[in-house]
Amino acid sequence: MNYRRLGNSGLKVSEISLGSWLTYGGYVGREEAISTIDKAYELGINFFDTANIYMNGEAEKVVGEALRKYPRESYVLATKVWGPMGDRPNDRGLSRKHIMEQCEASLKRLGLDYIDVYYCHAFDNDTPMEETLRAMDDLVRQGKVLYVGISNWTAAQIAEAVSIMDKYLLHRIVANQPLYNMFAREIEKEIIPLCERNGIGQVVYSPLAQGVLAGKYRTVNDAPAGSRASDKHGNQTVKSWLKEENLRKVERLRPIAEELGLSLAQLALAWTLRQPNVSSAIIGASVPEQVEHNVKASGVTIPDETLATIDEILEQA
């Protein structure tokens, strides 16, 4: 496993990280989830991602339980705040009240004293940005959070946050968690250049487009037993990627992967990691074997001429 700095911070994270969305505390059983996390740790993954909203806190409980047997200094744990955790008006968003209360709730579910990376899971139009950033800064000063992150913010929102943090000398954002894969390259235009200038690293989610880029699906109606497309929670998310034009591109990528001695999944992961600003790519896994397979993408260099060919394929309709 290779490791990269998280943005301009001194924190080193594994190029491949393990997430828990729609899996742990959900359609993956507790024992399978723990054995998958154990396999990831064994293979050198030191970066684990979850969120309070994943299965309404159940994912945090499973991840916390699995990691508790390892030395705290040996892994990096990220979780998030923003999504609804109840029906009351202050049970969601990025107000100071919600951030402070949810940080405490996450720590209890995880069984930890501090969170390594705490993300604002999305942007909150109802809360002044200064209120949100000061609350995150206070958590860092209290020792409950070590690093501040954001997720799904626009370039303009990130730029405004950097300006506020500089103005009031708040702890800087070091991580951005955006959607990024061969089918979704929007961050390349503005967000990556902006983050490079401001020391913010990308921790990308859905690098395999929910398994579509792994070649798991051959037709738009194909849903192998046990896949996310066959699960009621993941079905709609997967189907947003499961389009004829995407499947055609996957088939054109297949011989390129074979020529490099890689699987389609390993090619797609290595492709995201070609970006120096990408600190880590988050994979989802329901069994240890998936982790074992995907970690082989770490350290892979795709030749420039092959990258050019991939670009041509991706640009085709």
From TrEMBL:
<dbReference type="Pfam" id="PF00248">
    <property type="entry name" value="Aldo_ket_red"/>
</dbReference>
<keyword id="KW-0560">Oxidoreductase</keyword>
<protein>
    <submittedName>
        <fullName>Aldo/keto reductase family protein</fullName>
    </submittedName>
</protein>
<keyword id="KW-0521">NADP</keyword>
<dbReference type="InterPro" id="IPR005399">
    <property type="entry name" value="K_chnl_volt-dep_bsu_KCNAB-rel"/>
</dbReference>
<dbReference type="InterPro" id="IPR023210">
    <property type="entry name" value="NADP_OxRdtase_dom"/>
</dbReference>
<dbReference type="InterPro" id="IPR036812">
    <property type="entry name" value="NAD(P)_OxRdtase_dom_sf"/>
</dbReference>
<comment type="similarity">
    <text>Belongs to the shaker potassium channel beta subunit family.</text>
</comment>
<dbReference type="InterPro" id="IPR020471">
    <property type="entry name" value="AKR"/>
</dbReference>
<dbReference type="GO" id="GO:0005829">
    <property type="term" value="C:cytosol"/>
</dbReference>
<dbReference type="GO" id="GO:0016491">
    <property type="term" value="F:oxidoreductase activity"/>
</dbReference>
<feature type="domain" description="NADP-dependent oxidoreductase">
    <location>
        <begin position="15"/>
        <end position="314"/>
    </location>
</feature>
